[in-house]
Each structure stands twice: as structure tokens, then as C-alpha cells.
Design goal:
The complex is a heterodimer.
Chain A (H helix, E strand, L loop, with lengths): L4 E3 L3 H10 L4 E3 L5 H6 L8 E3 L9 E4 L6 E5 L4 H4 L4 H4 L1 H8 L4 H6 L2 H7 L7 H7 L2 E5 L4 E5 H4 E3 L2 E2 L6 E8 L5 E6 L10 E8 L4 E7 L6 E2 L1 H10 L1 E2 L4 E2 L2 H14 L10 H19 L2
Parallel strand pairs in A: 1-3, 2-3
Antiparallel strand pairs in A: 4-5, 5-10, 6-7, 6-10, 8-9, 11-12, 12-13, 13-14, 15-16
Chain B lengths: L4 E5 L2 E5 L8 H8 L18 E4 L2 E4 L12 E3 L14 H9 L8 H14 L5 H7 L11 H15 L20
Parallel strand pairs in B: 1-5
Antiparallel strand pairs in B: 1-2, 3-4, 3-5
Helix pairs in contact in B: 2-5
The chains are: A alpha+beta, B alpha+beta.
């Protein structure tokens, strides 16, 4: 009988272990999984730990200028995303990373784990939606790229097939202001009541928005974004939005939310929070 | 049941046998290896009282799957002290001197968090200190004296003026660093 905990040392090792044990639980940082294990809600019989696979950790940039893409290994921790190159390349992702849990949590929790857990409250997920990220997953025989909006299929459900592993996140470098806002009861150790990411691309002249904790999955607001991109006045280093268009944008983003009432907040509160965050985020990004 | 695995804790190897494979590092440290320094509070990473260093990185031991921590260097609060356990670390001494301890349950985790902070940032701002201990809950002290302890430890490490106690106007004995 195999060891019930396999510490993978390469992606191939992890994938072959997954092929041998289709029901195995993949362990990255453990900050979601171990809460359930400690509480007796999950009793995995086979664990494949991927947190120490070198190929899965680290940040690199492919291409340059307008076509550049940041490739973030799935086992990269939020501690590494909140500082270093991400603060320049994708500032909203660094902001979001800094709001994850506490230093202890950020030292362990990974972006790939955030994706695979697929909680609608995952802090990095609205940013990945706003930036139009692509998720690279690997199976026994091939690799495929899944657009972020297709990755989430329901609360804590994703397009990840059995035997597949999230290996990397591909994030386009976008030149322009970005922001991330999160509503919670304190500045640390908070699961978002509602969150919003915005990314302005001054070259493509687009605005991207991602919403967290206000629907069964992280959500975009494509209609609001397309409309504000038309209404804004674009210059090479900034965009200008008039107040009426900004208010209209905030209403449209709020309309894209699909919140429910739960123990952290009501649907009505959440929709209003989205409206307020959308207006604030756009104001901070524009003139 | 799992096969035997080996954890390296405070510089020494310990075999873990007949353990359930889902056990957390916190459980194994406390219940199997005799390291009760890390405290079991929430078991969901919220309280920080089980903070330890794994390969030099501050984590909640309750969220580490013990069997996945093979081939790492684990340091618990017991490992901060000399083998004879007679002396305190500089951070521990600062906590005692400033009265940053009340019931004491959160203290080992806070000590680990402050060591992790000062080892990377010898002169943290107040905001950096607050963020560094944001994952450690203390329900007794209100944090004032904990922040004072960090200030004392920081000043003493830098060897600067005012490295004694009473940095915030609380009078106390002048303590000379060894």
C-alpha cells in the first residue's frame, strides 16, 4: 500500500500519483483543506502534497510590452504575491494578496489553491477576472488553458476535471491603474462580505471588473465595462469619466452582482456595497 | 494508519509512528512528540496561537498536514531557548518585562510571530508591527503592552538609546542586554 501522503517533487510525479489515485485530495498550502480535516468534515484517504514542487512556485514574465504575460506558478504563496514584482506588474493582485487572512495564512496559502477551492469569496479571484487571466491545468496526457470566467462552474466547483492539476495562472500585463476593494469586519482574517477588482488597460482601452462574494462564483461585469470604455475619454496615460457616466457604471456593476443573504451579510447590503466600491474604484482609476 | 515518518523539530529528528495521516502538525507536536508550546486554539488558522516556523516561514501548525512536513526544519517556541530551557529569548524577556502576558495562551504564538518579524525587519514601523501580529489573537491584554514589548525588543536588538523598559513612559527596571 502506498503512503497515504505523497509529497510530490515534480508536476509529473504529482500527475502520475493523481492517475494512480483518482480520488486523492490535492494539498497545496492547506489553509482550506486542513480546516475541514481538523473539523472532521473531510477525511482524505490519500493526499498528494504539491506545495514543494519547484516548477509550481515562482513568477516569470513572458513576452514584453503590450503582449506581456505574467505566469504565476500555482503553488506560489500570497506572501510572494503581496510584494516583489507583482506590485508593479499587477498591483490589484498584490493588494488582494495582502488582504488574505494573516501573515501566517499568506505564508502558506497559494493562488492555485484559491482557484481549485473555487470559493466565491476567494480573495484573488475577482482580480483574475478583472485582468482576464487564463488558468493552465495539466492532466495525465495534456495541458489546457481555461479562461477565468469559464473556470468557475458553481460555488466551490470548477472546470478542473478528475486527475487534473492547476499548474499556473497566466495574467496579462495591463498598463493602467488597478484597484482592489474588500468589505469585511476588520483589516485582517476576514472572509470578504463583498469585494471588487478593477483593471484599466490604457493600450487596449478597456476596463475590467471582477466581483467576489456576491454570487455563486466570482463574477465579471462585461456590460458595464463595455459601456464605460465607450463613454470614457481615453488619453495615453489616463482616462477621464464624467460623473453621470460613473454613476451609471456603478449601477450597472451592481446589477451584475447576484448576491444572497447569509450570515456575513444580506443581498441588499452586498449589492449596495458593490455599487459604492465600483464608484470608488473607478474614481481612483480615472480623472 | 500511516507508515513511520520523520519530522525534524528544533534541530532533532523525531519518528512519528502509528499516526493517522490526516493529523495536523500541531496535533503531532503536542500529543505525539511532547512539544506543548504551540497552543491549540481554533484549529482553523484564525487565532495564531499555534504559530511555528517551517523552513523559517511563520505558519499555523494546525494548518500544516504533519506528514507533508517531512524534510523541513520545524522550530517551535521551545526551540528559541537554549537546550537547558533556562533562559529566555530577547523577545520573551521583553514580553515578561513589559507585562505583555496575561493568561498566556496566545503568548507562544505571538513570540514566534515577533521573532519572524524582527528576523526579517529589524526596525519595523508601528503599522508593520500591527500587520505582523494581525494573525495572533489576544483576548486579555488589548495589545498595548504587546506592542510595547515589540518596541523594547526592537530597541534592544538595535542597541540604541532607550533600550530599557519604560519606552512608553511606564517606569521599570533598566535591563542590560547581555
Amino acid at each position: 500500500m502506498a503512503m497515504p501522503v505523497i509529497v510530490a517533487d515534480s508536476v509529473e510525479h504529482a500527475l502520475s500519483a493523481l492517475a494512480d489515485h483518482p480520488d486523492a485530495t490535492v494539498l497545496a498550502g492547506g489553509t482550506d483543506l486542513m480546516v475541514e480535516v481538523n473539523d472532521g468534515r473531510r477525511t482524505p484517504t490519500q493526499v498528494i502534497a504539491v506545495g514543494r514542487v519547484a516548477e509550481l512556485t515562482g513568477i516569470r514574465v513572458d513576452g514584453h510590452a503590450e503582449g506581456a504575460t505574467i505566469v504565476i506558478g500555482a503553488a506560489t504563496t500570497f506572501a510572494r504575491l503581496e510584494r516583489g514584482p507583482i506590485t508593479e506588474l499587477a498591483p490589484a493582485l498584490a493588494y488582494a494578496a495582502r488582504t488574505v487572512g494573516s501573515p501566517q495564512i499568506r505564508n502558506a496559502a497559494t493562488i492555485g489553491g484559491n482557484l481549485a477551492t473555487a470559493s466565491p469569496a476567494g480573495d484573488s479571484l475577482p482580480v483574475l477576472v478583472a485582468l482576464g487571466a487564463t488558468i493552465e491545468v495539466a492532466g495525465a496526457n495534456d495541458r489546457r488553458q481555461i479562461p477565468i470566467v469559464e473556470f468557475f462552474t458553481g460555488p466551490k466547483r470548477s472546470a478542473l476535471a478528475p486527475g487534473e492539476l492547476v499548474v499556473a495562472v497566466h495574467v496579462p500585463v495591463r498598463r493602467g491603474p488597478q484597484d482592489y476593494l474588500k468589505v469585511g469586519v476588520r483589516n485582517a482574517m476576514v472572509i470578504a462580505v463583498a469585494s471588487l477588482a478593477i483593471a484599466v488597460d490604457l493600450d487596449a482601452r478597456t476596463v475590467g471588473v471582477g466581483l467576489g462574494s456576491v454570487g455563486p462564483t466570482p463574477l465579471g461585469a462585461p456590460d458595464a465595462c463595455a459601456r464605460i470604455a465607450e463613454q470614457a475619454r481615453w488619453d495615453t496615460d489616463h482616462l477621464t469619466v464624467d460623473p453621470a457616466a460613473a454613476a451609471d457604471f456603478a449601477d450597472q456593476v451592481a446589477a451584475a452582482a447576484r448576491p444572497i443573504d447569509d450570515h456575513r451579510g444580506t443581498a441588499e447590503y452586498r449589492r449596495n456595497a458593490v455599487r459604492v466600491m465600483a464608484a470608488r474604484a473607478l474614481r481612483r482609476c480615472g480623472r | 494508519m500511516s507508515e513511520i515518518y520523520v519530522l525534524r523539530v528544533n534541530g532533532e529528528e523525531h519518528a512519528v509512528a502509528d499516526a493517522w495521516s490526516g493529523e495536523s502538525l500541531l496535533y503531532v507536536l503536542r500529543e505525539r512528540l511532547g512539544f506543548p508550546g504551540a497552543k491549540s486554539g481554533c484549529e482553523q488558522g484564525e487565532c495564531g496561537s499555534c504559530s511555528v516556523l517551517v523552513d523559517g516561514v511563520l505558519v499555523c501548525a494546525c494548518l500544516v498536514l504533519a506528514a507533508s512536513a517531512v524534510e523541513t526544519e520545524i522550530v517551535t517556541v521551545e526551540g528559541l531557548q537554549p537546550a537547558e530551557r533556562g533562559e529566555m529569548s530577547d523577545v520573551q524577556r521583553a514580553f515578561v518585562e513589559t507585562g505583555a502576558v496575561q493568561c498566556g495562551f496566545c503568548t507562544p504564538g505571538l513570540i514566534m510571530a515577533v521573532h519572524a518579524l524582527l528576523d526579517h525587519d529589524p526596525d519595523p514601523s508601528d503599522l508593520v508591527v500591527r500587520e505582523a501580529i494581525s494573525g495572533n489573537l489576544c483576548r486579555c491584554t488589548g495589545y498595548g503592552r504587546i506592542l510595547e514589548a515589540v518596541e523594547v525588543a526592537t530597541r534592544r536588538r538595535s542597541g540604541g538609546p532607550g533600550s530599557g523598559v519604560g519606552a512608553r513612559g511606564v517606569s521599570g527596571p533598566e535591563v542590560v542586554a547581555e
